[in-house]
Here is the input.
Amino acid sequence: MIGNYLIGLREGLEAVLIVVLLVAYLTKSGRAHLLPRIWAGIGIAVLISLGFGALLTFGPRGLTFEAQEMIGGSLSMIAVGLVTWMIFWMAKASKTLNADLKSQVDQVAEGSVIGLVLVGAFAVGREGLETALFIWAAARATGETWQPLLGAFLGILTAIVLGILLNRGVLKISLSKFFAWTGAILVIVAGGVLAYGVHDLQEAGLLPGLHYLAFDVSGVIAPGGVLGTLLKGVFNFSPATTWLEATVWVLYVVPVMFLYLRTVFAPKTAVRG
Here is the structure.
């Protein structure tokens, strides 16, 4: 639940900030009459994201166990790829996001109605689809039902409240530090989702080594206990992990974390005059 709360908070805050920037720019530039087009695009993005989440949840039902595991494992890996791209993209694009959005608005503001609708839909839809897929994959990894959805909903709700407070100047936080640290945590969460995706493919018979365990600490950390549930909910940690799962986790988390921290926290080079 906590991991999904973090996903909902981060992705939701990204989407909310984009909406705030779009609305503020149109209002300040004297084009408030165009706001319904932006809201229409945002509404379309939300509906598509919800529909995508419903398709992921109910689509695989009725298939064989092996087919469900194959689909689940494959989509988990896609989700990890998307969230990895997202955290690196946000680390680089956050500095020019405001200017890029203004440029897109200026290009289509005086054109057809569909132009601004698409700007709103694409700006928010990317985060929506990524969130739906990653939350679905994380929920499968934890083996829970409603709790991951509740965590994601609370995270999105918190993001909306923070966005409103930031827009009104009531709250001031360092967004760069927020996205930097949450991105680092998401690398670990994504590593757990990737490992579980590998486990799904092992159960589907597509990957070997299902019965070769790297470690089994179920006797110390009970899967249904408080600690086991907490570790599973936050980091998708499994007390019984196969060698392939453990290897994939290390091969993903270590280099990705290194590259991400170097990207985010690298010292700025001084500009010589």
